[in-house]
Amino acid sequence: xxxxxxxxxxxxxxxxxxxxxxxxxxxxxxxxxxxxxxxxxxxxxxxxxxxxxxxxxxxxxxxxxxxxxxxxxxxxxxxxxxxxxxxxxxxxxxxxxxxxxxxxxxxxxxxxxxxxxxxxxxxxxxxxxxxxxxxxxxxxxxxxxxxxxxxxxxxxxxxxxxxxxxxxxxx
Length: 171
What we know:
Layout: H1 2-15, H2 21-40, H3 45-149, H4 160-170
Helix pairs in contact: 1-2, 1-3, 2-3
């Protein structure tokens, strides 16, 4: 009876490590059956005791593995959470940089459009000035042609009324 109570205490301690229910239930059945067979077959109990001890050893191995796996999962979960938080911060920084760069790009494009508009206006003014210069050159060349084609001014003889006017002045 003392062995049975020790086995049950050990069993309860092992199940606290949260081994899967099916494995614990199966091992519990095997331990119970083993202990019952020890009680019934006391004279030949040596082999049965070893079987029960092997089963308890397997139960302990399952429980310790489950405990280690649980701790590893907790560490892994914490690592993944930290990594996710780091990635979120990085994404936020990248998003903010992207917004800043987009605003700068729009500002530069606006300035480029202003500069392009100013260049277009300057180009139009230059074309108008060149057109005026060309028109003035055309009118100047036409005037030069007229001067070149026109006969030289002839000496106009003074008519008598002009001669009379000069004569009266002398008097």
